[in-house]
Specification:
heterotrimer, A mainly alpha (about 280), B alpha+beta (about 350), C mainly alpha (about 300), A: about 280 residues, mainly alpha, MetI-like fold, about 0% strand, B: about 350 residues, alpha+beta, 6-stranded mixed sheet, 6-stranded antiparallel sheet, 22 strands, about 25% helix, elongated
């Protein structure tokens, strides 16, 4: 900072604190709601401080689900989300490492075709191809399965593209030195390329895990059996339309639980995550 | 240890001809430096010997065996890269051991070889460190250690000292020389720095635009440059080249502006011929008026302490033939106005202006 | 972007084996469905898939005269612009503040990035709760302190406001991250030179920092618009379901609604194709722009 302007500094702190509060506000309300009884939550105004029913609510939600909304126990749904998010993150990383390595370090016919194909998949999110994808899943008998949840979401090659950009920055001499040392392609891949990609992999893991956990439209389509619902779907379904009364305390407990794993992942891996997100732009 | 044969080698990248017919025989245990300006093709040639570039035509043989189609790892060579190319995530020990591990040597043997190489390069204390914790000079030595540990027949160095600061470079030059004396391995060394070339080489290959300019021992190249390119490339400041015509009596050179440069020895055989007269700045001596062979006007002086570099021109036109001279610092002449200079006949060089080739006199 | 590495391995069967998994999945789960969407947009079929007829661009022509579709376009445009501009302005200000402060910057950063982890759907559920017409805390405040009745199930503008807030809420933290990184990449020497020239903090920000982070700004503009177009399906579904009276029926929601609930596969596919074209154009524009920046 160059000059000393306490007024401006104060303004900045104020703005930032205000935003922190605003961002935290909905989550605080949710947390508070998750610690009271259902009746208390229907009385206006709702409380602004936590109550004493936290354990009850969470236990109910995890073990029994929300009766009125015919959903499975939240623990089951969180398990589904976990499987889905982890598989997408790990699966996409593994596949992309391999294909990025191939297009960067080999010259083979169709290489450019493959490269442009990858580039195209960057552009179309799953939302524009939902119905035919649904039909493919139905034909392959993958409705209501983990495969059905996972496979269409690793089809886009964003991670391949990112790894490709990174591999291009690895000095050529490193590969030449490895070649002189007698390393073949896969040896070079495993001993040199993968260790060098550690930071990228960590950042991508965070991004992909969150992407997988937070998916809504596609899982909505591909699962009809409530035991295969993911956490985010479950929460939405706890709010029936119309005037039916809602157990807000339970809904908010479920919401808190659903927000927890991705938030943990972000906070624990914050350093890599920030680095990876920002690198992505280039 | 092995001899290296480069026979009539050509290299093109598509339509671009990068190497145009280079041939050289490198003896067993010899230290040869390939030197030239950026883009002359020296690195490409080295990489062809290493097997990292293909050979468009010609042959390269190592130890008598033609290796055109042989993979780098089977050529019994080791290479030190300009930016070291150390594996950043491996320790110094693992960097050096990697090639041996791939070859499948037993751990005990790897340990022995690595320790021995580390001792030779004074790296024994650094074996557990990772490259990012090392200084430039230390990384350089690790790169060399990686090469030594394989006990190859030929060492290939690609501008290894370019990334070091001046003081370190002098130190490393000495280390490289002592290493060569100790190990005696055939070494091919690429650099653009003519000082490195002069100090390290037993023989030099001077290259320009993919062609051989001259092959010879450093002193030979210095005292008898084969072309104007070599004359200007080796030695700093570069050799003075004065264009003109040898007078009818062969005793002087007459420049385009009519200036006369008297020659220390008459060259009657070249009378009336257009030539380039070459004299190195360090061979021009200050003298009295009577013995002067030429009198350039001085317009710029650099006092270096040990000697002085004076710059000037022949004749009256500042845009005429430029000259540089390296004079002893204690010469007490006026450094403004015309400066009488002379030179010995053995320091006189003549080149053909059209071809750039040396003319024997 | 199609540059090549100097160093490469000799080809054999290996590269094909390495790309095979990606290739297989991409072909089956991306290329095929995407091309099917395009094909379907040129057909008219009944709900059972029995009577299939090729009709060329008929679906598209019908779309562009359909008042509901044009309404969706308008709604989406309004929604994405308001959300994008709002989120960008707020996050820009926050990043500028954070960049100006040296102490505490890291703490603020940690405190401001976690909303990225929250699913749009969940964010929507939270905000819908806060704005719930009967028990919402802000509904209560608006009624009690400002005399404003809030019911986004009935009031179109309030519905739009709700989805803008719910969607923008987490985008602010994403944008903030990028803006902050962009600002921190501006060389300190430039800012110091401006200060010596007599520019105060605001002027420095407007004339030095802002132009230099324009690639970031442009990138975020595109990302936010794409987000608004596509990833907000969950937000709509959790709050207004496109209502009241299609006031929040964004394009992606209409695709789902018409196809799944309405059974009009051809029309829905045609809408998808239009969306594809839009997003492809945006992505290409973005890449071209960044490519040019990278060249310098």
């Amino acid at each position: 900072m160059i000059e000393n302007r306490p007024g401006l500094r104060l303004f900045c702190h104020a703005m930032l604190l205000l935003s922190v509060a605003t961002l935290a506000f909905p989550v605080w309300i949710a947390f508070v709601a998750s610690t009271h009884t259902a009746e208390r939550m229907l009385a206006v105004p709702i409380p602004l401080w936590p109550g004493s029913h936290m354990l009850d609510n969470y236990r109910t939600v995890l073990v029994e689900g929300v009766a009125g909304a015919s959903t499975a126990p939240v623990s089951r749904m969180m398990f589904n989300s976990l499987v889905m998010a982890l598989s997408i993150a790990v699966g996409k990383i593994v596949i992309s490492l391999l294909s990025a390595f191939a297009i960067v370090y080999f010259r083979f016919p169709l290489r450019m075709v493959f490269f442009w194909m990858i580039f195209i998949t960057l552009m179309l999110p799953v939302e524009v191809r939902i119905f035919p994808t649904y039909k493919v899943m139905a034909d392959l008998h993958l409705i209501n399965t983990y495969g059905g949840l996972i496979l269409p979401l690793i089809a886009s090659a964003t991670a391949t593209f990112l790894f490709r950009q990174f591999f291009m920055t690895i000095p050529d001499e490193m590969m030449e030195a490895a070649r002189m040392d007698g390393a073949g392609a896969m040896r070079f891949f495993w001993d040199v390329v993968v260790p060098l990609s550690r930071t990228n992999m960590a950042a991508l893991f965070v991004i992909l895990f969150i992407y997988g956990w937070n998916q809504y439209l596609w899982p909505l389509l591909v699962t009809t059996d409530e035991s295969m619902y993911t956490a985010v779907i479950g929460i939405k379904r706890m709010i029936p339309g119309g005037d039916a009364s809602v157990d807000w305390n339970l809904v908010m407990s479920a919401a808190m639980l659903a927000m927890l794993p991705p938030a943990l992942v972000v906070i624990v891996m914050q350093k890599w995550f920030v680095k990876g997100l920002v690198e992505q732009e280039k | 240890m092995a001899a290296v044969s480069i026979r009539d080698v050509y290299k093109s990248f598509g339509p671009v001809k990068v190497i145009q017919g280079i041939s050289m025989e490198v003896g067993d245990g010899e230290f040869v430096v390939m030197v030239g300006p950026s883009g002359c093709g020296k690195s490409t040639l080295l990489r062809m010997i290493a097997g990292l570039e293909s050979i468009t035509s010609g042959e390269i043989a190592i130890g008598g065996r033609v290796v055109n189609k042989v993979e780098p790892k089977d050529r019994d060579i080791a290479m030190v890269f300009q930016n070291y190319a150390l594996y950043p995530h491996k320790s110094v020990y693992d960097n050096m051991a990697y090639g041996l591990k791939i070859r499948g040597l037993p751990k005990a043997e790897i340990e022995t070889l690595v320790q021995r190489a580390a001792a030779t390069l004074e790296l024994s204390q650094l074996l557990k460190r990772s490259p990012r914790e090392l200084s430039g000079g230390q990384r350089q030595r690790v790169a060399m250690g990686r090469a030594i540990v394989r006990q190859p027949a030929v060492f290939l160095f690609d501008e290894p000292l370019s990334n070091l600061d001046a003081k370190l470079r002098v130190q490393m030059r000495a280390e490289l020389q002592s290493l060569h004396r100790r190990l005696g391995t055939t070494t091919l060394y690429v650099t653009h720095d003519q000082v490195e070339a002069m100090t390290l080489a037993q023989r030099m290959l001077v290259m320009n635009q993919g062609r051989t300019e001259q092959i010879g021992a450093p002193l030979e190249v210095y005292t008898h440059p084969a072309t104007t390119f070599v004359a200007g490339f080796i030695g700093s400041p570069p050799m003075n080249l004065i264009p003109g015509r040898i007078a009818a009596d062969g005793a002087a050179l007459v420049t385009g502006e009519g200036e006369r440069v008297h020659l220390p020895r008459a060259v009657a055989a070249l009378a009336n011929r257009e030539v380039l007269l070459g004299v190195r700045p360090e061979h021009l001596e200050a003298c009295d008026e009577a013995s002067a062979l030429l009198r350039p006007q001085i317009n710029f002086v650099e006092l270096l302490g040990s000697d002085s570099l004076v710059y000037g021109y022949l004749g009256t036109d500042k845009r005429g033939v430029r000259l540089a001279a390296r004079l002893h610092a204690t010469s007490t002449q006026a450094h403004d106005g015309a400066l009488p200079l002379r030179f010995e006949s053995q320091h006189m060089h003549v080149f053909d202006p059209a071809s750039g080739q040396r003319v024997e006199i | 972007m199609a540059a090549e590495k100097r160093a490469y391995f000799p080809a054999g069967w290996l590269p094909y084996a390495l790309v095979a998994p990606q290739l297989a999945i991409t072909l089956v789960f991306f290329m095929w469905p995407a091309s099917q969407t395009v094909w379907q947009s040129l057909l008219v079929e009944d709900a059972f898939g029995q009577n299939v007829q090729f009709v060329g661009l008929l679906n598209f022509r019908e779309l562009f005269v359909d008042p509901y579709y044009l309404n969706s376009f308008k709604v989406t445009a309004v929604f994405s612009i308001v959300m994008t501009v709002g989120a960008l302005l707020i996050s820009l200000t926050l990043a500028a503040c954070c960049d100006y402060l040296i102490r505490g910057a890291q703490v603020y950063q940690t405190l401001l990035i976690w909303p990225y982890a929250v699913a749009p759907v969940v964010a929507a559920v939270l905000w819908a709760f806060i704005f719930n017409p009967s028990v919402g805390i802000l509904t209560y405040v608006l009624r009690g302190w400002f005399g404003v009745e809030w019911n986004h199930m009935l009031n179109a503008n309030q519905a739009m406001t709700l989805i803008v807030i719910a969607s923008g809420w987490k985008q602010i933290s994403y944008n903030f991250l990028f803006f902050l990184a962009g600002m921190q990449a501006v060389p300190k020497s430039l800012i110091e030179a401006a200060a010596i020239d007599g520019a105060g903090p605001l002027r420095r920000f407007l004339t030095v920092v802002l132009p230099l982070i324009s690639p970031t700004t442009f990138f975020l503009l595109v990302v936010n618009i794409v987000y608004a177009f596509f990833e907000t399906f969950g937000v709509i579904d959790a709050t207004t379901q496109g209502g009241p009276m299609q006031a929040t029926q964004v394009l992606v929601y209409k695709v789902f609604h018409d196809g799944f609930k309405g059974g009009d596969l051809g029309g829905s596919a045609a809408q998808s194709v239009v969306l594809m074209v839009i997003v492809m154009t945006l992505t290409v524009v973005q890449f071209r722009y960044i490519e040019r920046k990278v060249k310098y």
